[in-house]
Amino acid sequence: MDQKIKIGIIGELHSERPSHNATNQALNHAAGALSMNLDIAWLLTQPLENDSGIKDLVNFDALWCAPGGLYKSKIGTIRAIQFAREKGWPFIGT
Question: Among 13, 26, 65, 88, which is least packed, fewest CB within 10 Å?
Fold first, then answer.
Protein backbone atom coordinates (compact mmCIF):
# COMPACT_ATOMS: atom_id res chain seq x y z
CA MET A 1 0.00 0.00 0.00
CA ASP A 2 2.45 2.62 -1.17
CA GLN A 3 0.07 4.87 -3.05
CA LYS A 4 -2.01 7.32 -1.03
CA ILE A 5 -5.11 8.98 -2.43
CA LYS A 6 -6.53 12.13 -0.84
CA ILE A 7 -10.28 12.65 -1.31
CA GLY A 8 -11.92 15.92 -0.31
CA ILE A 9 -15.62 15.62 0.41
CA ILE A 10 -17.34 18.97 -0.04
CA GLY A 11 -19.88 19.41 2.73
CA GLU A 12 -20.30 19.30 6.47
CA LEU A 13 -20.16 15.79 7.94
CA HIS A 14 -23.36 14.76 9.72
CA SER A 15 -22.51 11.43 11.33
CA GLU A 16 -26.19 10.72 12.03
CA ARG A 17 -26.92 10.64 8.28
CA PRO A 18 -26.60 7.13 6.84
CA SER A 19 -25.50 8.52 3.47
CA HIS A 20 -22.51 10.27 5.02
CA ASN A 21 -21.38 7.15 6.87
CA ALA A 22 -21.93 5.10 3.71
CA THR A 23 -19.73 7.52 1.74
CA ASN A 24 -16.81 6.94 4.09
CA GLN A 25 -17.42 3.19 4.14
CA ALA A 26 -17.61 2.96 0.34
CA LEU A 27 -14.38 4.90 -0.14
CA ASN A 28 -12.55 2.81 2.46
CA HIS A 29 -13.90 -0.41 0.94
CA ALA A 30 -12.72 0.59 -2.55
CA ALA A 31 -9.30 1.63 -1.26
CA GLY A 32 -8.91 -1.70 0.52
CA ALA A 33 -9.90 -3.66 -2.58
CA LEU A 34 -7.32 -1.72 -4.59
CA SER A 35 -4.64 -1.99 -1.88
CA MET A 36 -4.39 1.78 -1.61
CA ASN A 37 -4.03 4.09 1.35
CA LEU A 38 -6.80 6.63 1.58
CA ASP A 39 -7.08 9.97 3.31
CA ILE A 40 -10.65 11.31 3.49
CA ALA A 41 -11.31 14.90 4.54
CA TRP A 42 -14.76 16.45 4.89
CA LEU A 43 -14.46 20.08 3.81
CA LEU A 44 -16.55 22.78 5.43
CA THR A 45 -18.29 24.84 2.78
CA GLN A 46 -18.05 28.30 4.37
CA PRO A 47 -14.25 28.56 3.96
CA LEU A 48 -14.73 27.69 0.27
CA GLU A 49 -16.42 31.07 -0.23
CA ASN A 50 -12.92 32.61 -0.10
CA ASP A 51 -10.03 32.23 -2.53
CA SER A 52 -7.79 30.85 0.23
CA GLY A 53 -10.24 28.00 0.83
CA ILE A 54 -10.47 27.25 -2.88
CA LYS A 55 -6.67 27.22 -3.21
CA ASP A 56 -6.53 24.41 -0.63
CA LEU A 57 -8.48 22.13 -2.99
CA VAL A 58 -5.31 21.43 -4.97
CA ASN A 59 -4.16 19.32 -2.01
CA PHE A 60 -6.71 16.64 -2.95
CA ASP A 61 -6.51 14.08 -5.73
CA ALA A 62 -10.28 14.17 -6.24
CA LEU A 63 -13.37 15.90 -4.89
CA TRP A 64 -16.77 14.48 -4.01
CA CYS A 65 -19.81 16.64 -3.31
CA ALA A 66 -21.42 15.12 -0.22
CA PRO A 67 -24.81 13.45 -0.59
CA GLY A 68 -27.86 14.97 1.02
CA GLY A 69 -27.43 18.63 0.14
CA LEU A 70 -26.94 19.87 3.73
CA TYR A 71 -24.38 22.54 2.90
CA LYS A 72 -23.93 25.52 5.19
CA SER A 73 -22.77 27.61 2.24
CA LYS A 74 -24.26 27.10 -1.18
CA ILE A 75 -21.82 29.69 -2.53
CA GLY A 76 -18.84 27.75 -1.15
CA THR A 77 -20.22 24.52 -2.58
CA ILE A 78 -20.74 26.05 -6.02
CA ARG A 79 -17.26 27.58 -5.99
CA ALA A 80 -15.72 24.18 -5.21
CA ILE A 81 -17.67 22.58 -8.07
CA GLN A 82 -16.56 25.42 -10.35
CA PHE A 83 -12.93 24.79 -9.33
CA ALA A 84 -13.22 21.11 -10.28
CA ARG A 85 -14.92 21.89 -13.58
CA GLU A 86 -12.52 24.63 -14.66
CA LYS A 87 -9.34 22.86 -13.54
CA GLY A 88 -10.34 19.42 -14.83
CA TRP A 89 -10.15 17.98 -11.31
CA PRO A 90 -11.69 14.53 -10.76
CA PHE A 91 -15.13 15.18 -9.29
CA ILE A 92 -18.30 13.31 -8.42
CA GLY A 93 -21.56 14.74 -7.17
CA THR A 94 -24.18 12.56 -5.53
Answer: 88
